[in-house]
């Protein structure tokens, strides 16, 4: 039998003790007297059903547990676990009222601060990309620096969004002058394959065609301008001609995009001499060749010497719109001053005026003087007093404040020899410059090889290669072809593969300086590298060897090697690279066949193998591609 005390809590016991004397006692046992529960008021107030006489004691105990009496005598029902309601103590760990965190409390813990939800907008990567490329394009339109634009786009990453760059570049240029349209086409050609792959370029142009209906709202001439962009891309070989036919199948006939494709095909690409017409449609204002720029500079300097009008000369320099190439103005002005001593005061006046106006920056001025210092020995062959004149001009420019002496010294171009080895190397450079110039005039490979053998300095073979290609890059395609042909002959006779590799390493290391004279130096060097591989002068693995020998900071050299590898991996690469300079020194096919036939007949009659090999190296090096065929 269970006692009633065992079924009651302390609180219930207190309630029983304070109950009125005449109150009926609830019992936990059905056998207890008075179990009939006449206190209906007490139970009904708390909605507890009184057990019948045969009810279980546990039921009454559960009902009793939730009944509490206050000091006022009012019965209330409390919550479980003692949390209670009004007038109760609550749970054991509950505190009175709300707690407040005081930052001045020694026991203050910042971790107890309530969390604050911060609502932040989720950025779309594509929107961020579009904003970034818009700034890149704006900067490119302001500076015209293709290399910087390419570098910025590479650093931006997100290559999967490159079609949007194509669309943004073209659409931004469509609402501007012809100059910006030409700049956009030039940049697209530069980005092709190196930064943006052909598939992405096609996708970008297709997006433009799709959006023609929207573009025409802001740009009424959308159909004609966009058609011209597509035609220009086809002419520049960055868009396949089949693009128009493929895009036409996916564009509704009633759309402006269909008109764009039809105009590009019928009005531009089907016209006679369409390539030249398309390339010149926007004036080609950004695509001056090196020769054109140098000719314009020479003309304006000549006119200035005749007129003496400094203001007009500065205006003509500004109209060139090639501030990154103003060092050429400085160099040519100095050469003119040395050639015509009477013109020296006028030349120095022009340079001083251009520097003070900020027309020619300090860095461009220093580059011009540094280049002059580099070539002063070569110039002395034509102008004996060149070195003396230059040494008198430099102190005067420094004293007048328009030439930075510290920058000139930092460039390390003082033209002074530092020892016997330097003097020997300087003499060698003078001699090979004369030999190379003679070769470009005579096209006589045996005579050149004989001259090199007479010099007897094979340790300088890489320097000869560097000088040969550097001089060729500043001339026409004929001389470039002659340099490649000569390189093949030298490799057979006196140059080792190591000499060739080291020569190209030296070229690539100085490529940034070469680009000061030759705007397209990087692409020209890439063609020379690719041509050397096609001619079996270098093996493809030698390109990796050259890359590994470059210093870590020679990014331009590494990019040139990548360009050469891209050229070699293209379709019909061999034929295209062999024809890159037009085969200027090679004979016609029939002439080459006649030469080969005569050589074989002579060998058959004489039987002298060494003589036949000697003749093939010297006489047929210009038509080696015909021999291979």
Automatic annotation (TrEMBL):
Sequence ranges of Low complexity compositional bias: 27-40
Alphabetic keyword roster: Cytoplasm, Nucleus, Repeat, Translation regulation
GO cellular component labels: cytosol
Xref: InterPro entries: ARM-type_fold, Initiation_fac_eIF4g_MI, PDCD4
PANTHER family linked: PROGRAMMED CELL DEATH 4, PROGRAMMED CELL DEATH PROTEIN 4
Gene3D superfamilies: 1.25.40.180
Main localization, broad class: cytoplasm
Species: Anisodus tanguticus
Family to which this protein belongs: Belongs to the PDCD4 family.
Protein name, per record: MI domain-containing protein
Entry keyword Secreted: no
GO molecular function, one term: ribosome binding
Subcellular location: Cytoplasm, Cytosol
Region (Disordered): 1-41, 71-91
One Pfam family of this chain: MA3
GO biological process entries: negative regulation of DNA-templated transcription; regulation of translation; response to absence of light; response to carbon starvation
Entry-linked SUPFAM superfamilies: ARM repeat
Domain MI: 128-249, 292-413, 427-548
Lineage: superkingdom: Eukaryota
């Amino acid at each position: 039998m269970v006692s009633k005390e065992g079924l009651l809590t302390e609180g219930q016991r207190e309630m029983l003790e304070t109950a009125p004397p005449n109150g009926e006692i609830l019992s936990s046992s059905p056998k207890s007297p008075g179990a009939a529960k006449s206190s209906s008021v007490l139970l009904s107030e708390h909605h507890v059903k009184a057990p019948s006489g045969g009810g279980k004691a546990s039921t009454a105990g559960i009902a009793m547990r939730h009944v509490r009496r206050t000091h006022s005598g009012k019965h209330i029902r409390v919550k479980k676990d003692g949390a209670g309601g009004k007038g109760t103590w609550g749970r054991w760990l509950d505190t009175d009222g709300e707690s407040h965190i005081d930052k001045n409390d020694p026991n203050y813990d910042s971790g107890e601060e309530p969390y604050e939800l911060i609502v932040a907008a989720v950025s779309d990567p594509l929107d961020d990309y579009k904003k970034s490329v818009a700034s890149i394009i704006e900067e490119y339109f302001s500076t015209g620096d293709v290399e910087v634009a390419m570098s910025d786009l590479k650093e931006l990453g997100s290559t999967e969004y490159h079609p949007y760059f194509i669309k943004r570049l073209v659409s931004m240029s469509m609402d501007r002058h012809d100059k910006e349209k030409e700049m956009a086409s030039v940049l697209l050609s530069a980005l092709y394959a190196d930064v943006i792959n052909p598939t992405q370029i096609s996708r970008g142009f297709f997006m433009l065609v799709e959006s023609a209906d929207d573009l025409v709202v802001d740009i009424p001439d959308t159909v004609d301008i966009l058609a011209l962009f597509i035609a220009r891309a086809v002419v520049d070989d960055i868009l396949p001609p089949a693009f128009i036919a493929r895009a036409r199948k996916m564009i509704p006939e009633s759309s402006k995009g269909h008109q764009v494709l039809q105009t590009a095909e019928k009005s531009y690409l089907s016209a006679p001499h369409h390539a030249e017409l398309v390339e010149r449609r926007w004036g080609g204002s950004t695509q001056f060749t090196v020769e054109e720029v140098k000719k314009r500079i020479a003309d304006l300097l000549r006119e200035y010497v005749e007129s003496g009008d400094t203001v007009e000369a500065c205006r003509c320099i500004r109209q060139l719109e090639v501030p990154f190439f103003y060092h050429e103005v400085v160099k040519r002005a100095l050469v003119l001053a040395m050639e015509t001593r009477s013109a020296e005061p006028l030349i120095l006046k022009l340079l001083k005026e251009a520097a003070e106006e900020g027309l020619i920056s300090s860095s461009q001025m220093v580059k011009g003087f540094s280049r002059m210092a580099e070539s002063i020995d070569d110039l002395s062959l034509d102008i004996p007093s060149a070195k003396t004149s230059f040494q008198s001009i430099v102190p005067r420019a420094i004293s007048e404040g328009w030439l930075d002496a510290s920058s000139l010294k930092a460039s390390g171009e003082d033209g002074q020899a530092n020892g016997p080895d330097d003097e020997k190397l300087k003499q060698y450079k003078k001699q090979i410059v004369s030999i190379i110039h003679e070769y470009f005039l005579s096209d006589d490979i045996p005579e050149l090889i004989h001259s090199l053998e007479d010099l007897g300095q094979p340790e300088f073979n890489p320097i000869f290669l560097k000088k040969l290609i550097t001089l060729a890059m500043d001339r026409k395609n004929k001389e470039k072809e002659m340099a490649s042909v000569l390189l093949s002959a030298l490799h057979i006779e006196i140059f080792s593969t190591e000499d060739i590799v080291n020569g190209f390493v030296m070229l690539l290391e100085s490529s940034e300086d070469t680009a000061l004279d030759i705007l397209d130096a990087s692409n020209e060097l890439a063609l020379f590298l690719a041509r050397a591989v096609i001619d079996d002068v270098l093996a493809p693995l030698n390109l990796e060897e050259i890359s590994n020998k470059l210093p870590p900071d020679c990014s331009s050299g590494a990019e040139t090697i990548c360009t050469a590898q891209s050229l070699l991996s293209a379709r019909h690469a061999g034929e295209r690279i062999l024809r890159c300079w037009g085969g200027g020194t090679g004979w016609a096919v029939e002439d080459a066949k006649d030469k080969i036939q005569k050589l074989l007949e002579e060998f058959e009659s004489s039987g002298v193998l060494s003589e036949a090999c000697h003749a093939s190296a010297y006489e047929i090096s210009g038509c080696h591609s015909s021999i291979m065929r």
